[in-house]
Amino acid sequence: MNITILYFAALKEALGLAREEVSLPGGISSAGELRAWLGGRGAAWGEALGEGRNVQVAVDRVLADAATPLRDGAEVAFFPPVTGG
After folding, report:
1. Is the pLDDT confidence value at 83 over 90?
2. Which end of the chain is less packed: N or C, by CB atoms within 10 Å?
3. Which H/E stretch holds residue 64?
4. How far apart are CA 8 and CA 15, in angstroms?
5. DSSP at 25
6. Which helix (H) or strand (E) holds 33?
7. Cβ(41)–Cβ(17) below 8 Å
8. Measured between alpha carbons, how far apart are the two ends of the chain, in Å?
């Protein structure tokens, strides 16, 4: 499955990356599984996306949760929580 991943705000700065195209390994079929897989890439990834970090996710521009399924060609965005003022 091929997807596009977007990183915003502090995540973009921490990872040094705004966008990437990824071919997912088998077994990654939800937003939560993707986040765990990305967090396993190394220190910066684990710190930015690891369990316990307050990060929101959207799949195809709709707010999602860990159980949200992914599809081939999906656009997945990770971003810090947004507050109003």
Report:
1. no
2. C
3. strand 62-64
4. 10
5. P
6. helix 31-39
7. no
8. 39
